[in-house]
Specification:
Elements: H1 9-17, H2 26-47, H3 75-89, E1 94-99, E2 106-107, E3 117-125, E4 136-144, H4 147-152, E5 170-176, E6 180-185, E7 190-196, E8 201-206, E9 217-220, H5 230-241, E10 252-254, H6 259-269, E11 272-275, E12 288-289, H7 290-303, E13 307-309, E14 326-327, E15 329-332, H8 334-345, H9 356-361
Parallel strand pairs: 1-3, 9-10, 9-11
Antiparallel strand pairs: 1-2, 3-4, 4-5, 5-6, 6-7, 7-8, 11-15, 12-14, 13-15
Bound molecules: 6-O-phosphono-beta-D-fructofuranose.
Length: 366
């Protein structure tokens, strides 16, 4: 099949750069290093059991087995983290990195030059799906380093990464599914690339991705329903009531438990994803991580014409306070996310005011 009628990722980056005559190409080189890490991960994932890469990372492999989140690390989590670090530390474009798998900021080793960007990533999202051959992905976000860190080349501290999502320079995810895809925003819309395995290049297959404003599809882990706050209970209950309820139409539900796969479905055909703040664990303000899950996904979604929110405010406005901070996250088709935000803004009814019939039929009866 001829590849010449499509842009390669490199050509796309050069084309975008032409709009900024003063840029030196560092940024493009950084994106290509990230893309190379994603290709290496895709290749490793594709061998599965044949490559001996499934299962938990164990002490036999000479490293820890639990990450900073308190989660058991899979072999592929550790390998993917290494690919991201090794392929990005040497290029001279980064002042430092932060990863889901690293408790503290990763400092660029002394033998390499330091640059002006920060790379923040979840090297392999959807760990529960690794061993069962369901789509997983990598998520990344690029920020500018603080001016004094660039000027002095000093080591980074956690606070250097505490920038609101609106300040992201670029964000993307790679999806390791039936095909490997890279979905990317440089702040000028969203473009999708499919890895052509015969030439090892990401080819632009989905220029200018737009999320439909309306949808009949929602995704949520309903096993948490007894911990949800009222606005989420109300929203899901109304979706379940379908044609017979307040929304007047039927909805479909999906849950893959792999946010990248879920986000990709929403990018392609619309939908809404909810992993809201709940009261399951008072120490956790939500399940997903702000800096390397919610912010990059939020930037992509907004650039594709969708909406990304905590439920109460735009996710890209949230001031981070921790490297591994968790947050409630709702994103997808604009009109549905706005509906969920409206429900958060309205006062919750007193228990006595809830129609007993509605409560009886609810998924979340007390
Ligand atoms: O780490 C995040 C993640 O794996 C997401 O990819 C996914 O949406 C979520 O966790 C699944 O959580 P749960 O197991 O609670 O459904």
């Amino acid at each position: 099949m001829p590849i010449t009628h499509r842009l390669t990722l490199t050509q796309y980056l050069i084309q975008e750069r032409r709009r900024y005559p003063n840029s030196k190409g560092e940024f493009n080189a950084l994106i290509l290093d990230v893309a190379l890490a994603c290709k290496a991960i895709a290749r490793t994932v594709a061998f599965g059991e044949l490559g001996g890469v499934l299962g938990n990372h164990s002490a036999d492999d000479g490293d820890k087995t639990i990450n900073v989140q308190g989660e058991v690390q899979k072999k592929l989590d550790v390998m993917s983290n290494n690919y991201f670090i090794r392929l990005n530390e040497w290029g001279g474009h980064l002042a430092g990195m932060a990863s889901e798998e690293e408790e503290l900021p990763y400092q660029i080793p002394a033998q390499y030059p330091r640059g002006k960007y920060l790379l923040v990533f979840d090297p392999l999202d959807g760990s529960s799906n690794i061993d069962v051959n369901v789509s997983i992905g990598s998520i990344f976000s690029i920020l500018r380093a603080p001016e004094d860190a660039i000027a002095s080349g000093r080591d980074l501290v956690e606070a250097d990464f505490f920038q609101v999502g609106a300040k992201q320079v670029a964000a993307g995810y790679a999806l390791y599914g039936p095909t490997t895809m890279l979905i990317l925003t440089l702040g000028n819309g969203v473009s999708g690339f499919t890895l052509d395995p015969t030439v090892g290049e990401f080819m632009q297959t989905h220029p200018n991705i737009k999320i439909p404003e309306d949808t009949n599809e929602f995704a949520i882990n309903a096993s948490n329903s007894r911990f949800w706050e009222y606005p989420i209970k109300r929203y899901v209950d109304e979706c379940l009531a379908g044609k017979t309820g307040a929304r007047g139409r039927d909805f479909n539900m999906r849950w893959i438990a792999s946010m990248v796969a879920e986000a990709h479905r929403i990018m392609m055909r619309g939908g809404v994803f909810l992993y809201p703040r709940d009261n399951k664990d008072p120490n956790m303000a939500g399940r997903l991580r702000l800096l390397y899950e919610a912010n990059p996904m939020g930037f992509l979604v907004e650039q594709a014409g969708g909406r990304a929110s905590t439920g109460s405010e735009p996710i890209l406005n949230v001031q981070p306070t921790g490297l591994h901070q968790r947050i409630g996250f709702v994103f997808g088709s604009k009109n549905e996310v706005e509906c969920i935000e409206r429900y958060h803004a309205e006062p919750a009814p007193k228990k006595d005011d809830i129609n007993p019939l509605f409560a009886e039929r609810s998924l979340f009866r007390d």
